[in-house]
TrEMBL record:
Name of the protein in its database record: Ribosomal RNA small subunit methyltransferase A
Subcellular location field: Cytoplasm
Matches recorded under HAMAP family: 16SrRNA_methyltr_A
EC number per UniProt: 2.1.1.182
Function as written in the Swiss-Prot or TrEMBL entry: Specifically dimethylates two adjacent adenosines (A1518 and A1519) in the loop of a conserved hairpin near the 3'-end of 16S rRNA in the 30S particle. May play a critical role in biogenesis of 30S subunits.
Gene3D superfamilies on file: Ribosomal RNA adenine dimethylase-like, domain 2, Vaccinia Virus protein VP39
Organism domain of life: Bacteria
Organism: candidate division Kazan bacterium GW2011_GWA1_44_22
UniProt keyword annotation of Methyltransferase present: yes
Amino acid sequence: MDLTNITTVKRILQEYQTVAQKRLGQHFLINAEILDHIVTAAKLTSADEVLEIGPGFGTLTRALAQKAHRVVAVEKDIAMVKACRGINADLTNIKVVEDNALALAEEFFRQNFPKKHYKVVANLPYYLTSAIIRFFLNSPHRPDMMVLMVQKEVAERIVATPPDANLLSVAVQFYGKPEIITLVPKQNFWPMPKVDSAVIRITPHKKAPADIDDHKFFRLVKAGFGERRKQIHNSLAGGLRLEPALIQKILSKSGIEPTRRAQTLNLTEWIKLYKNIEKL
């Protein structure tokens, strides 16, 4: 069965009495070549365990199962859960779980990935991208790798560096190294979305870039990006509610010109700034 064939997709939807849910961002991949790009990007071996988010009918799931030891697919839509289980009943190394990927409990990881090593591979609904990345990179069960299909614009934001950095790029690059693998025009999906996509790979750092409090660090970064058009001394003074003179002193100590803007700071500078604020 070719799950990248539009006629097949429509027939399955009819058979399982469901439709592509816009509110869940369901767009079915209809190009087998893109599947190869995703699987190749994940660098799978026969020992790898994969967590897939939003498998739909199992188009990507089947491709992953051919290379990996096991695939655990988490699907929120009960109609898709039934379809994915039925269509892929012939594969013994696939497990389809009805659950919300943003609310996976400790027990889920204990049961499904007891060795604590797994890779996340997914064709993500656009509206979930940032939340999914944050959830897994900031999790005590951090994956060894994430390979994701995301909106092209979001992919470009994730890999951005100074002078075009942003809150999302700093957040992702604090935890790992992101890279765009390939661009995917919108014509490769049905129903066709309004925007193009991209496949990205995020490889988490083996060691955090600094021994700091994540929550406090990102409070600082959010304050810096709170008003992008403002110079860094103004955005930090307002966002952190600290005296302007004190902010000027901290910036000087950190070797950062107060007239710069948040998007020009690199990760090393953010960490240095955080450490000097913590000394107050």
